[in-house]
Amino acid sequence: MHPNNPFIDDYPFEDLVSTSPELASFVFKNIYGNYTIKFSDKEAVKALNKALLKNHYNLDWNIPQGNLCPPIPGRLDYLLHIKDLCSKKDIHLLDIGTGANLIYPILGTCHFNWKCTASEVDLHSLENAKQIIENNSTLKNINLRHQKYKTKIFETLIKTDDYFDVMVCNPPFFKNSINAQNNNLRKNKNLQLKEKDNLNFGGKSNELWYKGGEEAFVKKMAEESASFKRQIGWFTSLVSKKEHLKNIKRAINKTKPTEVRIVEMEQGNKKSRFIAWTFL
Q1: Cα torsion 38, 42, 44, 45: sign
Q2: Which of 161, 223, 240, 277 is 20 to 30 Å from 27 by CA-CA measure?
C-alpha cells in the first residue's frame, strides 16, 4: 500500500462504530482476537465504507442495493499513485464510469482538494451520484456528465475547451453476466463461502461487464485517446488481470504516445496495477 495511505494500518473498528453505529452488527472478533467484518458480505462492506467516509471526511454516503461497492483503501491508493504521476498540486481529474458510488471524485475532492469531473452512462447511477453531492456541501464542486452512448468513452463527452490533468477508470472486469457469475462462484468455492447468489462487491451490468471485458474496454479507450491527446494529460486505467497488459500496451503503443507506464500496487495480499500513457 502507498506509504501515504491513511488506511495502511488496521481499521479502527471501535472508532468507526462510534461514528457509524450501523456498522456494529457486522463487526466481530476473529480467532486472533482482532475486530473485523465478513468481507464476503456486501452489506458489511457497504456499512464499512459508510463508516470510513463519515469518520475520515464527515460525509453521508449511500448506494442503492445491487450497485458496485468499492474498497476505499484500494481506490485511494490508485489516486495517491496518480498524484505521484502528475507531480502538480491543482489537478483536474476526469473519472470515466463513476457509477452510483462516485468514489474517485469524492476522494479526489476530500483527500486532495482536486477539481473533479465524473461521467456515467447509466442514468440511475448518475442520479445517486447527484444525490450524494446534494447531501454533502463539501462535494458541491464535483461536475457530473452523462455519456449518452454506451459504445463511446471520450467522444461526445469531452468539450472543445476541456482540459484534464488526468483521467482515471475502473473498467468493467468481465465479458458478460455469465462470466461474472462463474467467477463469483469459483471465488466463493475457493474461500469456502456459502453466499453464491451475488458478488460481494455488488455491481450492475454496465459496472461489471463489457463485450470483450476489460481488455476490449481499455483498447477502445486507447483508440479514442489519440483524438483527445491535447485535452488529457495522463490517460490511466486499472487493469485487474496482469495477462491483459501485453495486448493493452500494444494497442496503446499504436496511438504513438510519448510515454507508457505500468504502476504496480499492493493492498495486503492483493496485487493490482494501473496502466498510464501520455502524448504530452
Answers
A1: positive
A2: 240
Beta pairing partners, 271: 266
Q: Diameter of the chain by CA atoms?
A: 58
Average pLDDT over residues 26-50: 94
Secondary structure class of 78 (helix, strand, coil): helix
d(CA 66, CA 113): 30
pTM: 0.88
- DSSP E strands: which ranges in 31-142? 35-36, 92-96, 115-120
Q: Give the span between the Cα atoms of 106 and 102, in whole angstroms.
A: 6
223 vs 217: CA distance, rounded Å: 10
- Nearest C-alpha neighbor of 180 from the set 247, 240, 99, 234: 240
Distance CA 156, CA 58 (A): 35
